[in-house]
Amino acid sequence: MKSKAELTREEIIELLEKSDGSHDFSGMNLSGLNLNGINFTGVKFCSADLSGTRFYESILYKSDLSGANLQNAYLVKVKALETANMANINFHGMNLNGCIFRNAQLAGADFSNCSLMYTDFEGANLCGANFSDADLKRSHLSNGQFENANFVRADLKETSISEADFHGANLVGANLSDSKLSFVNMSKANMSKVNLSRSQCDELRLHFANLDEALLCGSIFNAVDFSNASLQFANFTGSRLISAKMESVVLNNAVFCAASIPAIMFEDLNMSNANFYAAHMVGSSFKGSNLTGSDFRNADLTAVSLFNSNITQARFEGANLNKTYFERSNMENASGLPESLLKSI
Question: CATH second-level architecture of 1-90?
Answer without folding.
Answer: 3 Solenoid (2.160)
